[in-house]
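does this look right to u?? nicotinamide-adenine-dinucleotide version
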Amino acid sequence: MSKPLENKLALVTGSSRGIGAAIAIRLAAEGASVIVNYAASPARAEKVVKEIRDAGGKAEAVGADLSTIEGTNKLIASIDQAFGGSFGGRLDILVNNAGSVVFGPFMEGAEDSYDKHFNLNVRSVIALSKDAARRMIPQKWGRIINIGSIHGEHAHVSGVTMYVATKFAVHGFTRGLSRELGATGVTVNAVQPGFIDTELSPADDGSVAEAMKKLTSVGRFGRAEEIASAVAFLAQPESAFINGENLTVDGGWNA
Ligand SMILES: NC(=O)c1ccc[n+]([C@@H]2O[C@H](COP(=O)([O-])OP(=O)(O)OC[C@H]3O[C@@H](n4cnc5c(N)ncnc54)[C@H](O)[C@@H]3O)[C@@H](O)[C@H]2O)c1
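got this back:
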């Protein structure tokens, strides 16, 4: 039986660990050939690639630091060479997952961190989406899926002001681009995770884990695989009528 994403090329940014790794593994399990992007750790990216290949899927790793314009351009150029050029420059699914948080009071933050933070969390999303749309529009099919955050709708906690600013930008960009591309067959959506157990926000941080029990209605942290299943749902051909949606997956925190 053929898999739903068979013969589709997917690019998942920042997929050497955490939510991105879970997304890459899930899309590959659904039949997609996956480009696993990483910034700094080829060993961890190769581990994800091996896990996918061992399960019978297709994946390859591409290093590119998306906090720089050069790195973003390098990743874009790599799409043409993906899987020995067998996709001929096509791209079917783009998941803009890579992102980082700067914790701490805004008034104490260094001004020289603004560009790096915005370049990764926002600029790379915009540049990769534009390139992806150029490839997807002629084929009349594509899925652009951005990983935003519940902090793209509310400032739930203090000390992450810059992060909130970048994720509100991702939310708005998702809505705006969905409207422009809607008639082309390319959908643009986002998944907005609540607190998910990753190295970015580990569930064994006692105080946060305790808070999550009270703040979410399901009473726990989320798992990276639970974000991956929301992304896989939006990537399906059957999800063609979902466009411009910022799907919150947060165990009921925002309710
Ligand atoms: N974990 C959470 O609770 C949570 C909640 C809401 C949103 N998110 C979002 O989910 C996404 C993934 O987060 P995570 O929890 O898996 O974090 P993580 O820190 O575990 O993983 C982040 C990934 O991004 C990659 N990355 C970091 N800097 C990069 C760069 N300069 N260039 C390319 N890749 C880079 C890392 O290599 C890593 O693979 C982020 O966009 C984050 O904002 C996470």
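The pocket of nicotinamide-adenine-dinucleotide is lined by residues 13-20, 38-39, 65-67, 97-100, 120, 147, 149, 193, 195-196, 198-201 (CB under 6 Å). idk if thats expected tbh
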